Amino acid sequence: MNYRQGDVILIQVSDDAAHDVVPSPKDPRGSVLAEGETSGHHHAVFGRGHKLFRFRDASGQQLLVTGKNGAEIRVVGGGAGGVPRHEPIQVAPGKYVIRTQRSWTSANLSPRVED
User: CB count, 10 Å around CB of 91?
Assistant: First the structure.
């Protein structure tokens, strides 16, 4: 099963796909999956027994391993007028690759000059 919360996508993977990882660096805010682009919010994991890893390759992708009771993903900070940006989601026990989708703007396009 896959999950999505805003620009964060959790893709369930098999045990075979969860190799060549190292523990993610400690963050004083807890297990942070992604940072908001402009509002100062972040997506964090809550619940017992979960672990967050990074793949050794240059992709920068993370791997979330949830505990036997799963986990909850919440958005912390960045609410507009007291309204949360996204509702919490419950994630079943398993292993998930974390991907983020960023908004595209014309500023992302490199200038191209043709003669």
Answer: 21
Cα gap 107→105, rounded to integer Å: 5
Per-residue pLDDT tens over the stretch 30-76: 899 988 766 778 899 998 999 999 988 867 789 999 989 999 999 88
Measure the CA–CA gap between 26 and 47, rounded to whole angstroms: 16
Cβ within 8 Å of residue 70, ≥6 positions away: 47, 90, 91, 92, 93
Q: Which residues contact 14 (CB under 8 A, 6 or more apart)?
A: 95
CA 64 vs. chain centroid, Å, equals 9
Residue 113's φ and ψ, nearest 5 degrees, are -110, 130
